[in-house]
Amino acid sequence: MNHKKMKTRAKINLTLDVLGKRKDNYHEVEMIMQSIDLFDEMEFISKKKGITIYCQHCEVPIDESNIVYRAAKLLKDEYKIDKGIDIFIHKNIPVAAGLAGGSSNGAGTLQALNELWQLDLPLTKLMELGKRVGADIPFCLLGGTALAQGIGEKLQSLPPLPSNWLVLVKPPISISTAWVYKNLKINRHTQHPDTARAIQGIKEQNIDKAIPYFYNILEDVTIPAYPEIKAIKKRLEELGAKGVLMSGSGPTVFGFCRDEKEAQSICRTLKKEYNEVFIAKTYDEEVEAEDE
């Protein structure tokens, strides 16, 4: 085999809690992550030597700083691969959006090259390697619904959410994750998600029971600095979306809809106000495979 195509999916955070700062300056987090069916398309073509990246999106670097390049280089160095690869990325997931688009591309690269280069590495090994390239890569490899702890690398799969329709809005701002964590102040007044109760709702396959406990603590930093995020949250709620939250360190905001019809209606309205509005469903590979 010398050719492989992949779909690499975005993620949202149903909860994001920060429990404190560790001695190594990383933050101890606890969050429920969820794959969605908004995806980038990637193509991998073998060649004699070198790693070359192609992408139609002007904001995506195509040099060694790209997470995809770093993932490919790590596998190449680690397993003494003497072949090269051309990697084509077609972006559909918005860039720098808090949706792990880059990390999902990195995860897809590890999966595709594991096959193309016939390494036969198990998922656990790919996740271990992925952690060295980016904190969200292990989850993007695992997919579905999962609880992430530690610095995001300790993952525990949860029962998949019933398939739910979402509307996502990405405002035209960029937010640095490092800046958000640096400015996060946790004290006794800080609101936290109730992760345990949210998980209970998910286990009971009852999204309405889980939603009241969803919360993203990083909104405490981003909303005062970027009021537009609060305005989008309010707009989604006015239009009928539930469980409206910012994903990751932002700036994308998402909300749950009753059905596809409501999602389409909210999307049409918001497209008059924002350039980047998307409809997606929560995604679980196993459930999706059964449906096909």
Automatic annotation (TrEMBL):
ATP binds at residues 94-104. Residues 66-144 form the GHMP kinase N-terminal domain. Pathway: Isoprenoid biosynthesis; isopentenyl diphosphate biosynthesis via DXP pathway; isopentenyl diphosphate from 1-deoxy-D-xylulose 5-phosphate: step 3/6. Residues 214-275 form the GHMP kinase C-terminal domain. Its EC number is 2.7.1.148. The keyword Oxidoreductase does not apply. Pfam families: GHMP_kinases_C (PF08544), GHMP_kinases_N (PF00288). It comes from the Bacteria. GO terms for molecular function: 4-(cytidine 5'-diphospho)-2-C-methyl-D-erythritol kinase activity; ATP binding. Transmembrane segments: none annotated. Catalyzes the phosphorylation of the position 2 hydroxy group of 4-diphosphocytidyl-2C-methyl-D-erythritol. Belongs to the GHMP kinase family. IspE subfamily. This is 4-diphosphocytidyl-2-C-methyl-D-erythritol kinase. It comes from Irregularibacter muris. The gene is ispE.
